[in-house]
Design brief:
four-stranded antiparallel sheet, 0% helix, globular
């Protein structure tokens, strides 16, 4: 299974971006997917996750009310809609998928497949 993240870029504070994550390699389409991010000089952290059936989204407190995770099972894709972006949102964003479970989880160790990351830069 390969994951490909895209949609990153440079945006001004207050702006919005939509990240996409597409899966290939015949992955199951009912496993939980998530977004994590890693800012310069910091550890990778949880952003959002969604269940295999597209429900039960969970979010980090820092992005609640601003980010929305969704998925398209038919396209084997997940999305992260980001609004009201802040400079502290600047990071490389990674998508991830669980191999065997449909339940979303906060922990990086719960995810088996990872994309290569897409850079989001928010200027002040």
């Amino acid at each position: 299974v390969q994951l490909q993240a895209s949609g990153g870029g440079l945006v001004q504070a207050g702006g919005s971006l939509r990240l996409s994550c597409t899966a290939s390699g015949r992955p199951p389409n009912d496993r939980a997917m998530a977004w994590f991010r890693q800012a310069p000089g910091k550890e990778r952290e949880f952003v959002a996750a969604i269940s295999g059936n597209g429900g039960s989204p969970i979010y980090a407190d820092s992005v609640k009310g601003r980010f929305t995770i969704s998925r398209d099972k038919a396209r084997l894709a997940a999305y992260l809609q980001m609004i009201s972006l802040k400079p502290e949102d600047t990071a490389v964003y990674y998508c991830a998928s669980r191999k065997s479970y449909s339940t979303p989880h906060y922990s990086q160790g719960s995810y088996d497949y990872w994309g290569q990351g897409t850079l989001v830069t928010v200027s002040s």
